[in-house]
Write a structure and sequence with these properties.
single chain; six-stranded antiparallel sheet; globular; 44% helix
Length: 631
């Protein structure tokens, strides 16, 4: 795990200044405290910061072949590099290191762009082809790693984090109003946008190619999942998925440094620990919680019990409400882009503790999106039954529900399921508030018409992957390729690398994802039970007491409670103070109405209010560092 950056003047071929590349790399020193490297030649400059995980002595970057015709800077891990190396050696390629980076170099020389489809791993990378004067930037199919870039006047600047690009900008970028509108709808900014106008991030499974004075962005991974032709018995399917999980987990344990696990009290990370116990013992695990005194259903004791079952070491990390309030500004700064998920605070602190013992930690993200673990999956899966109810009956039920106080999730869900066009239906399921209500928060003439529908344009490129999928499968494509990488995986990368910790996601192994996409919805949601097949595998490792535990993630319920409490103190001042920076873009009275309705119990607006506070923290961070221009 590392940090990459660079510049290519692809139009005028003006020489790159080495000092600029050094400044970009210095902005990423937290991602790579072990080593640094540079390659500057004419119009191209590459920079690198390294966190050494595999081939500690021989993995220096930028790395090239012996002829210096292909150069690579690479952030991430390639889990099938041993198999690819063996294949390439059989084709006559000679290797000088044990590094997975060198496999990318020789793979590109052998297969060109197709090398990306052969990689099973997480990566944000840049490949420089000296002979063709071509630069390729690429992000892995699951979007676990990030690549930000800015193109202007024939120059591209890129980096693993925004701060690398911002380090050499001649002027401060403005806030992108379309991106802000999407952030307020979804609590994250979907690729390819960022809140900085003119700075983009590659969407998962896409690449940007710069050559002959021009550039293009395209999808390099175009899988079209097809359901398995002959269904097997449930018993066979459980055994088959278990074998897939075992292979993926074994690949993710490849490391030359210590490996641990971020353990919650739930079944997903619990299953990971059970699988890890097949390949080792006394694994170090780390759990964040709040103690029984603060929260009677706390994760710490649950996770400790899971660790005890598998003879693992468990390190608890206990947080307080004061910690939550005081740490939020720093965490928003680390994220660079605002993300209003309540789990960002516990994630930051569990990574901070884990990095004292290990350099690599596995995390149990992915099964909810792959196997249908959220309440919204029940609505999507059974939504056709609702749409087939006679109009008169459906209107009566809706009228009764709409009169209920709060219950915003249920109200939005019913509204969304009534929408016939597939993409628009999915769009509304994801949104935390109706689009018109979000638009009404903005000051006059700031927002372009249809800004909130821009996400459907971004999703259009995913339609081929959705062909042939059932209703739930189509929705999951958008989760796997959009919401999961741009929200959960993005903050996992930033918050872990802030502490020099590499987080790996075994459930998003290429083989696991492609297997799940080939199964019909009946293996994901069955008789109202979510993650049906995944849970059957969990039963082989976990006792009923764990399987019956309420889903909590990193105890986000208590963070939500703390936030509601904080609305009566410091945080409410952000929403009420007319001098708050957010009111350059938003109407103060509209925001106050959201707060009043929330406090009165009329509506549950805590998600939107938390989004606004995170946005305000981001604006204050930007102002203090000179990172954005006022409108």
């Amino acid at each position: 795990m590392c940090g990459i950056c660079g510049q290519y003047n692809f139009k005028g071929n003006a020489p790159v200044k080495p000092g600029d590349i050094e400044r970009m790399a210095r902005a990423l020193v937290h991602r790579g405290p072990d080593d640094e490297g540079y390659y500057v030649s004419g119009a191209l400059g590459l920079g690198f910061r390294r966190l050494s995980i595999i081939d500690l002595e021989g993995g220096h970057q930028p790395m090239s072949d012996q002829q210096k015709s292909v150069w690579v800077v690479f952030n991430g891990e390639i889990y099938n590099f041993h198999e690819l190396r063996h294949e390439l050696e059989g084709l006559g390629h000679e290797f000088r290191t044990r590094s997975d980076t060198e496999v990318i170099i020789h793979g590109y020389k052998q297969w060109g762009f197709e090398v990306l489809n052969r990689l099973n791993g997480m990566f944000g990378l840049a490949i420089w082809d000296e002979n063709q004067k071509q630069l390729i930037l690429a992000r892995d199919a699951a979007g676990i790693k990030l690549v930000y870039y800015r193109v202007e006047s024939g120059t591209v600047l890129f980096g693993s984090e925004l701060r690398a690009v911002l380090a050499v900008l001649p002027e401060r970028p403005e806030v992108d109003m379309t991106a802000l509108n999407l952030f307020l709808r979804y609590r994250y900014t979907p690729s390819p946008l960022t809140l900085y106008k003119g700075i983009r991030k590659l969407a998962p499974a896409t690449m940007a190619v710069f050559k002959n004075g021009a550039w293009r962005e395209e999808r390099w991974y175009r899988i079209q999942p097809r359901l398995f032709p002959t269904p097997k018995s449930d018993t066979d399917m459980v055994e088959e998925l278990l074998d897939v999980y075992k292979r993926a987990l074994k690949r993710h344990l490849i490391s030359d440094v210590p490996v641990g696990l971020l353990l919650s009290g739930g079944i997903d990370s619990g299953l990971l620990l059970g699988l890890m116990s097949l390949y080792g013992a006394s694994w170090p695990t780390y759990t964040v919680g709040y103690g029984k005194s603060a929260y009677k259903d706390d994760e710490l004791s649950d996770a400790a019990e899971t660790a005890r079952i598998f003879s693992a070491r468990n390190v608890p990390v206990e947080l307080t409400q004061d910690t939550f309030e005081q740490s939020l500004p720093n965490i928003v700064s680390v994220l660079e882009e605002p993300i209003a998920a309540s789990s960002i605070v516990p994630m930051y602190f569990v990574c901070e503790r884990a990095c004292h013992d290990v350099k690599v930690a596995l995390v149990g993200q992915g099964p909810d999106e792959l196997w249908g673990g959220y309440t919204r999956h029940l609505g999507v899966h059974y939504g056709s039954y609702w749409r087939n109810i006679p109009d008169w009956l459906r209107r009566g039920v809706e009228s009764g529900i709409n009169r209920l106080p709060r219950n915003e999730t249920l109200k939005r869900g019913l509204y969304s399921l009534n929408i016939e066009p597939r993409m628009q239906r999915y769009q509304n399921v994801f949104s935390i508030m109706p689009g018109g209500a979000v638009d009404s928060l903005f000051r006059e003439n700031l927002l372009l018409q249809g800004a909130g529908d821009q996400i459907c344009e971004f999703w259009r490129d995913l339609e081929p992957e959705m062909q042939g999928t059932d209703e739930l499968g189509g929705f999951q494509v958008l989760e796997i390729r959009s919401s999961l990488p741009d929200e959960l995986l993005m903050y996992a990368d930033k918050l872990s690398m802030a502490h020099g910790l590499e987080v790996r996601v075994p459930y998003l192994d290429k083989e696991v994802v492609e297997y799940a996409q080939r199964l019909p919805a009946s293996f994901k949601v069955r008789l109202g039970q979510r993650k049906w097949l995944h849970r059957r595998v969990c039963e082989k490792f976990l006792p009923p007491t764990i399987l019956r535990r309420k889903k909590r993630g990193f105890a986000v319920d208590v963070v939500d409670q703390w936030f509601n409490g904080s609305l009566n103190s410091r945080m409410s001042s952000y929403l009420l103070d007319s001098s708050s920076l957010m009111f350059q873009f938003l109407k103060p009275q509209a925001v106050r109405c959201l707060l009043d309705d929330h406090r009165s119990g009329k509506n549950d607006n805590h998600k939107m209010l938390f989004s606004l506070i995170v946005f305000e923290e981001w604006l204050r961070m930007c102002q203090s560092t000179g990172c954005y221009a006022e409108t």
